[in-house]
Specification:
Number of strands of chain B: 2
Number of helices of chain C: 15
Strand order of the largest sheet of chain B: 1-2
Strand content of chain B: under 5%
Order of helices and strands of chain C: HHHHHHHHHHHHHHH
Shape of chain B: flat
Structural class of chain B: mainly alpha
Oligomer: heterotrimer
Number of strands of chain C: 0
Order of helices and strands of chain B: HEEHHHHHHHHHHHH
Distance between the termini of chain C: 17 Å
Shape of chain C: globular
Chain lengths: ~425, ~300, ~300
């Protein structure tokens, strides 16, 4: 009994100590980078910011992806929204904005055109919802086929520019003894959506696609069936049983030379640095013959920062100051240098904080006509989920392209 | 059960149950009621408004093919878990308590219990490697024995749920075994001695002494195993995320995905209500069948 | 309980001990049982060994030689894991776990005593309420629970973990402790009552000591839960100074790349206190407590 009382007393005491006192402006910053080296980067940057602005204190909380999605929902639904937080672009941002608690940046940007111009133009639109700017892009990314350059040279193979070219390339690699020319791991369904998003973008008429993704269409375009069949056909060249392989394992199969190609995010360049023993390159997903979409687009989307509109004006002012500090040439430069995430601030990237491959990657992003958002971000989660679940079962042969589209159509109808 | 003793204060038992009732009432039953309330609305956790839809969520539920898949998966989970974590665990526990194995029983029961102490994250990680189609242990063994095309386990819609079920058994059987060992050790030694002298063999002693004597513990393990099987989340979510497609989804996984991925909080609450009703119904049936607390 | 056992004469017992019964020797059936017990042992022991073995490997080695022994043990994985994911959170975890155990056992044992030993209006209802508490999925309670915790102004404090943990462990523990209380012979309670012991003294001096095995088992089970709990800890806690080990282990992961060796090392360190606790309590699972007490 005594021990129990002691324990309880201890608990109460420690709780009392937890009440913090502050005579400065405190900005609550919620992010999803609890892991190294990203955490150290942010903490370092915050310390710099606080030193330069002694009247502002940044209070952070950080949890990883899935937990981030849980927690931000709980916080927003109970009016406990953080003052500054990160957001993916697309449907995640749209849903957050629907809460009515996210501040628009239009006036802030109008007052500070210099800040607006400091960020690569193509990265702003993904955070525009109903014509208003709700988030500030922070980092950018793109998805490309990575290939084993040494092996391609050895076998005399060329980078394909068309889908048929890609098929032929895979056949040639198979003939050369590579049973699984494309390494793939779909145990996490988002990896499926990266493929399907790109293929749909290449095949389906852009207007129809935009309408369908926005929830106004009915996904009856025959292009979708064609897109799914392309994915199924590519599946024949991929890792066997890809649904039980995870993305990281698939990437490692490429790194360790077992598969000559893999579809990766350009931000993943940093993971290739240590162990890879051959020269590699990357190319955008090739054009699909007779496809109606622009083959110059690169699938990928920025991540950004948002601020709340329920905070007091002083806190909001401090929050804006903080965002501008993080997304600055200095902040962006350090981010890329320390974490390998590609900053979308102009002039933040050069050969001093990027290796040769990352420079190429940035070049590929900037050369692309525009970013095509991730499929699981661009459309409602219910629709994206039907695509992802269907894509997995398409590869196992449990569903046909027609079955999958029927599920997608049902999903689309359910949210109208 | 004890009838009221002379001079006992009528309020005494209520004072004893008060802490439990208070904690459960505030932290379990208020959310539970809120959950019933939410199930009549259609909303996202992020939206400022809720739309009242009455029983619409329940109607959707009965026509949703994923719910049917999930329930079938939960039933498999339940059947296999009861067979192994209740029945087999009782047999294992009584074997470990057999004099014949006295020398090794401590080592065995300790080892059997160790997985229980390891978090599901690690267990799922371990099994993702055990089931791996390329480097996995199981398929290496199957190939060794001449199987040409071993299953893809977590990647095949037909085997995915069973991959998760087997993993759960690995993780949790030691837990119920330990509970049964504790219960068996509470049985008076004299009962066994008397039976032995009467010439009862091992099987008879198991059947006529152990089983009736651990009845209360069997009730507890049955209820917790069945409830656990219908609420199972972590095991499946970490190992397969309910995939491929929705093949290995369970009610809890589907509920979670509706709440936090698909932004259908109202529907998620509806699924939680159905889970609660299923578990409660099964618990009442078990409570009646075991006549728990009613004595022999 | 059968009265026959208690009235067996001492003579018969000594006779039994002298003449070793044939049942105490190995039979073919028991040989098969032994074989399966050993297989089960290996099925548990090997993967556990694998976990430790891989916690000593480099990232590349895990991919290349996942089932082999580490070529060059990377003890630095343990140092990294300790520094990056555990050291800061260790005391918080201990504090939360110990408090949760104390509070849960206190509330659940008192409640179980009333439920198992008193006949009062609402007994069955309260028992059903406890069982029902196991049947609500924690994921779906997050939003209402967070609102309650905020309203009580305990969010982002230790209490935001301890109290919900206690509330969500009570149902299971009440079931276990009650089942153990139900098997305590009535004679003991009656004689104590005749000696003029109060209800609380009977609880404190007879029920608690006699249920030591199940209470210790409960301690381990609560410890496992509180030590590894993730969902509530992440949502209800914001400040670094209150976070527990499972949130710390998150620092070692990423969506796209995980440093497996360090993560496994972290998870091994994190499981260690529980395993030590279990070993310390093991010796109290000895046979013969009740028997000894009844025989006097």
């Amino acid at each position: 009994m005594k021990k129990l009382a002691l324990a309880l007393a201890l608990v109460l005491c420690l709780t009392a100590c937890a009440v913090a006192f502050a005579d400065q402006v405190t900005v609550k910053f919620f992010h999803r980078w609890p892991n190294e080296p990203k955490l150290s980067y942010l903490n370092g940057l915050i310390a710099e910011f606080e030193a330069a602005n002694p009247d502002i204190k940044i209070e952070t909380d950080q949890v990883l992806n899935d937990s981030y999605k849980e927690k931000i929902r709980v916080l927003v639904s109970t009016d406990d929204i953080p003052d500054v937080f990160m957001s993916w672009s697309g449907s995640f941002a749209t849903n957050l904005v629907k809460s009515g608690r996210v501040q628009t940046w239009d006036d802030i940007l109008a007052a500070d055109p210099e800040f607006k111009d400091s960020i690569i133009e193509s990265q702003w639109p993904p955070f525009q919802i109903d014509g208003k700017q709700y988030g500030v892009p922070w980092s950018m990314d793109g998805k490309a086929f990575f290939y084993n350059k040494d092996l391609f040279t050895e076998l005399g193979l060329e980078v394909p520019t068309t889908l048929n070219g890609l098929y032929e390339l895979c056949e040639a690699l198979k003939a050369a003894g590579y049973e699984e020319p494309i390494s793939a791991g779909f145990s996490a369904p988002w990896a499926v959506s990266h493929y399907l998003g790109t293929i749909c973008q290449r095949v389906v008429d852009p207007e129809t696609l935009a309408k369908d993704y926005a929830g106004e269409g009915d996904f009856t375009d025959p292009g979708y069936i064609e897109a799914l069949n392309i994915f199924k056909k590519l599946g024949e060249y991929m890792t066997k049983d890809p649904n039980s392989v995870d993305h990281e394992f698939a990437r490692n199969a490429f790194i360790f030379g077992e598969s000559p190609m893999v579809y990766l995010q350009l931000g993943e360049c940093k993971y290739l640095r240590d162990d890879i023993e051959f020269d590699y390159g990357f190319f955008n997903f090739p054009a699909v013959e007779d496809g109606k979409g622009d083959p110059g687009q690169l699938t990928g989307a920025p991540e950004g920062m948002m601020i709340s509109n329920v905070a007091s004006p002083e806190v909001q002012e401090a929050a804006i100051k903080f965002v501008k500090f993080v997304i600055s040439q200095h902040g962006g430069y350090e981010m890329t240098k320390q974490t390998g995430e590609l900053s979308c601030v102009k002039g933040a990237l050069d050969e001093t904080n990027l290796d040769a491959k990352q420079l190429e990657a940035v070049d590929l992003i900037l050369k692309s006509t525009e970013p095509a958002l991730w499929q699981d971000n661009v459309t409602d989660a219910v629709i994206a989920d039907a695509f992802m679940a269907g894509g997995q079962l398409l590869l196992t042969g449990d569903k046909t392209a027609e079955d999958v589209m029927k599920d997608v159509q049902t999903a689309a109808a359910s949210i109208k | 059960m004890q009838s009221r003793r002379a001079g006992m204060n009528v309020m005494t038992p209520y004072i004893y149950v008060l802490p439990c009732v208070l904690l459960l009432g505030v932290f379990v039953y208020i959310p539970l009621v809120a959950n019933f309330y939410y199930s009549a609305y259609s909303f996202s956790a992020l939206s400022p408004t809720k739309e009242f839809v009455g029983l619409q969520n329940y109607r959707t539920l009965f026509t949703d093919p994923v719910i049917a898949t999930a329930i079938v998966n939960n039933i498999w989970y339940c059947l296999i878990s009861v067979a192994i974590q209740v029945l087999l665990a009782l047999v294992i526990a009584s074997l470990l308590e057999d004099k014949l194995f006295a020398k090794i029983s401590t080592v065995l029961r300790t080892t059997y219990f160790l997985p229980v102490l390891i978090s599901m994250t690690v267990v799922a990680l371990l099994f993702s490697f055990v089931y791996h189609p390329k480097i996995g242990l199981i398929n290496a063994a199957l190939k060794f024995f001449g199987m040409k095309n071993p299953p893809a386990w977590t990647g095949d819609p037909k085997t995915a749920i069973f991959s998760a079920i087997i993993m759960s058994q690995w993780h949790s059987t030691g837990y119920t075994t330990m509970l049964f060992i504790v219960a068996i050790q509470g049985i008076s030694e004299d009962l066994y001695e008397a039976a032995e002298i009467d010439g009862a063999n091992r099987l008879q002693r198991f059947w006529h002494i152990t089983v009736p004597q651990v009845r209360e513990m069997m009730f507890v393990t049955m209820v917790t195993t069945v409830t656990g099987a219908f609420l199972v989340f972590n095991d499946v979510y970490i190992l397969t995320q309910g995939g491929p497609g929705n093949a290995s989804t369970t009610l809890a996984v589907y509920m979670y995905r509706n709440a936090f991925n698909l932004d259908k909080m109202g529907y998620a609450s509806t699924i939680a209500v159905i889970m609660l009703i299923i578990c409660m119904a099964l618990a009442i049936i078990q409570n009646t069948a075991f006549r728990s607390g009613k004595g022999d | 309980m059968s009265q026959a056992a208690i009235t067996k004469s001492e003579a018969e017992k000594t006779l039994k001990i002298r003449n070793k019964l044939p049942e105490d020797r190995m039979t073919p059936g028991m040989a098969v049982a032994l074989f399966f017990l050993v297989i089960y042992f290996l099925l548990i022991a090997y993967p556990l060994f694998w976990l430790i073995s891989n916690s000593l490997k480099t990232y590349k080695e895990i991919y290349k030689n996942i089932w082999a022994l580490p070529a060059n043990p990377q003890w630095s994985n343990y140092v990294n894991a300790w520094n990056r994911g555990i050291s800061r959170y260790f005391l918080n975890s201990v504090l939360v776990t110990v408090s949760t155990i104390a509070l849960t056992i206190f509330a659940a044992a008192l409640g179980s005593y009333a439920l198992a030993r008193f006949r009062f209006r609402g007994n069955q209802l309260i028992f059903m309420m406890c069982m029902g508490g196991m049947m609500l999925s924690p994921q779906v309670t997050l939003i209402p629970l967070y609102q309650i915790i905020r309203a009580m102004r305990i969010h982002d404090t230790y209490l935001a973990m301890i109290i919900p943990y206690t509330a969500y462990r009570i149902p299971m523990m009440v079931m276990l402790i009650r089942s153990s209380f139900l098997t305590i012979p009535k004679e003991m309670e009656e004689s104590a009552s005749l000696d003029g012991c109060s209800d609380f003294r009977i609880f404190w001096q007879i029920f608690l000591p006699m249920s030591k095995p199940i209470l210790l088992t409960c301690c381990i089970l609560i410890a496992y839960y509180a030590w590894n709990e993730f969902l509530f800890a992440i949502i209800f806690i914001n400040s670094e100074k209150f976070k527990t080990i499972p949130t710390g282990l998150m620092n070692l992961r990423d969506a796209l790349q995980t440093d497996w060796g360090t993560l496994l090392a972290g998870m091994t360190i994190s499981a260690l206190p529980l395993i030590i606790l279990f070993f310390c309590m093991q010796k109290h699972f000895i046979r013969g407590m009740t028997a000894g007490a009844v025989k006097g």
